[in-house]
Amino acid sequence: MSKSIIITCAVTGGIHTPTMSPHLPITPAQIAAESIAAAEAGASIIHLHARDPETGRPTPDPKVFMQFLPVIKANCDAIINVSTGGGLGMTLEQRLEAALVAKPEMASLNCGSLNFGIFPMLQKHASWNHDWEPAFLEMTRDFVFKNTFKDIEYTLRELGDTHGTRFEFECYDLGHLYNLAYFADKGLLKPPFFIQMIFGILGGMGADTDNLSHLHSIAQRLFGDNFEWSVLAAGRNQMKFATQSAVMGGNVRVGLEDNLYIDRGQLAVSNADQVRKIRRIVEELGFTVATPAEARRRLGLKG
Ligand code: KMH
Ligand code: ZN
Q1: What CATH number corresponds to the domain at position 90?
Q2: Pocket of ligand 1, candidates 15, 48, 80, 110: which has the most ligand atoms within 8 Å of its Cβ, to mutate?
Q3: What is the pLDDT of residues 223-272, one digit of tens each?
Q4: Structural domains of the chain, count
Q5: Share of the chain above pLDDT 90, in %
Q6: 204 CB under 6 A from ligand 1?
Q7: Which domain holds residue 20?
Q8: Residue 44: phi, psi to the nearest 5?
Q9: For ligand 1, is residue 271 a contact (CB within 6 Å)?
């Protein structure tokens, strides 16, 4: 019998702007409600960023996180995964602040640095307010998403060793798998490794299925049976790549952080809609969806 599929839902992120969709959750109440509904729809992991309720911009402020994290915890059994990716221009210390306060079961950990090309998307579709800010756009063209070896080690020690938080290892490129293997060899992290393979971010791997096959075989070579893997693809490739992952024995991530649409030209009205869609697809294919308890067991979480 095949394994059940762990669905992660990334409910808001730090990239899409409120001008891009009226359905993007912004306030703590909206983020909590969207997360609980996504969990009810079948997501066993909820990946969370926070936003300034006034502007919609990503915020690292733990006080904002703490307005929704306990509400989610009290109202569903899903695994809470606090992002340490944060938002454009945050320092590593800011990115870790909320997770250090909340001590969640899971946090994201970005496994290498990359150019993070959000400017084409912002140029075309979005602004933080209705007066476009050219200086901000120019800044995004020069943005390196910095995750050095020192940053990764610091995150592993501060969050993992100290608080028992385990990680969603975000891998945007093949080299990021080798970075992860390096830290595993150093004894700084313990299996099972939860590897999130990310496609379609400009600066990282393109959404081509040969990239997925190659990444998967290299992960098997590096980690043997000691890993669980999941796939997210940004934008229009989201559902196709999630399905491909399921067919290949992997897990899936959906949510408005990664894609605002439910179908071509049609905005998703909620995160739960995307969870229901991928659930429908994988169940039609004969798979089952993992409960939070199953996900905790397979990912070795503290519970
Ligand atoms: N925004 C995604 C492409 C994080 O929060 O640490 C990757 C992500 C990073 O979710
Ligand atoms: Zn994220």
Answers
A1: 3.20.20.70
A2: 110
A3: 999 999 999 999 999 999 999 999 999 999 999 999 999 999 999 999 99
A4: 1
A5: 88
A6: no
A7: 7-117+146-299
A8: -100, -10
A9: no
